[in-house]
Here is the input.
Amino acid sequence: MTDNSSKDGSKKSALDLWLSKSKKSTPEKGIKKMPENAKTVLSHGQERLWLLDQIYPNQNLYNYAHRYCIDGPIHLDILVQSFQLLAKENEVLRSNYEIVGATCVQLVKHERIPIELYNLSKLNSIDQKKEIELQKEHFLTLSFDLSKDPLFQLFIFDLGANKYELFLVLHHIIGDGWSLGIINEMVSKFYRQLSSQESRTPHDERLQYKDVAFWQKNQKVKEKDLDYWTTKLSGKLPVLDLPKSSVKAENPFEGNSFVKALAPALSKQLNELSKERNTTPYVLFLTAYKVFLSKYCKQNDILVASPFSNRDTKELEKIIGFFNETVVLRTQIQSDITFIELVESVKQSTFEALEHKNVPFDTLVKELKIERQIGENPIFQTMFLYNKANKQLDLGEGIESKEQMLDLGTSKFDLTLFVNETSDHLELVFEHRNCFDSEIILQMSQHFEQLLQNIIKEPNQKISELSLLTDKEQQLILTEWNNNNVPIPSINSIQELIFKKEYETKIAISHAGQSINYLELDQWSSQIAIQLLQKGVSTNDFVGLYCHRSVDMIVGMMGII
Here is the structure.
């Protein structure tokens, strides 16, 4: 029996073991600096983002915006200098992308990154908020020209009384979510060194992202990895029947985000359940999300995409750049298995997907011969992300920094579920395109939370037994809607109920543009009844009616009755 216990006594999940195995199996010095005379190239992920920018220009779709609220006696000039040192040591932050010959290349075009300073210290707090909101609208909607604009920009607001707000905006082609943690770590280190006047040695020999891209483009896709995906995604791919609005937005990428904080107690219980099952919170929430989609869409074949950071070696952990790739996780959900059994299945399929992950997404799309549609993803409609807490900006004792990812008002996919770790609870973010009504998204968030609560109550329930309904909805459906204790009207026939004097001018039947009122229905059906009586039809005789769905069909039925 293999002991998966770590030094602190906790159990490692299969995914943790895979990650550590992956890092050990690749030599740490396997990636070298690219030759000096070689032309820079884009990584697979950068090529995809560059192509999307050409297809959808003037969009902020692949921007990332982050907010810092700093409270404490900082040296603003040293903080600015720290960010400039960050950019100096990471070429990718000062780079642009343009076609040279027949190839798109990375060119370092900027000596420094632009940092805008706003001194609002003389304004009152209300006017400060107004000014920040006004400026925020500007830089949250920035659309970068990848060939010339600085792709990393910083905006600093000095509010006085040792309070500051920083807004960092970058394009994903130069950095991913993991990179933000590296940015925080490096800026914190530079700030402390400069504040204490420590000597600093430049890291000229450190690997740059262009070295990683050059190495990556010289790696061949393994046949066994490609075979795995073409088999896994063979046949007709399912399209999720999500509850969209019938109104289409002019810009298919316009979107919103709805944030729902889970109670600390529920968050703790979910984390404990993942430990009990020897898996990660990622797998637990991914399984719950697949169950949720299956029930909402009434489908069993569920495709959910999930990004992963392709940093398999220690040396890649400290490099700023775009390392995200996408895996598409397909699950056939059987209603007669338990949730815990499904967790084990999803864990195994996720493990297998990561074993065969080194197939660029665009290569897979070409191999599957899937035709791209404007505004639509070629394989999936929804994505799932589980975000662990990043390293925070640490500028020293007595200085507090609170951070927040900002909503850009866009959505790359129909629906994306983010599960974010915070200091004391888990947070759900439903990012969605505007093809969903806000009421539907609110309802979906409530149903997903209810599903999580029911999983905690009894994780061994069968999938068919897991309910999405809140207590209020169950009360409405099971009790109020079934309350049929009403008096039966004292009537002799259905005609007596229908043909009341007060109904005569009201519409009785409407079909295919034709409508008649109750008086007309009474008159026409009476004519049919008279004809039937003249032909010898009497009470309780069977009369056949042959006609298409129409106003005449109802008239005929009433005449027979």
Q: What stands out?
A: The first helix runs from residue 14 to 25.
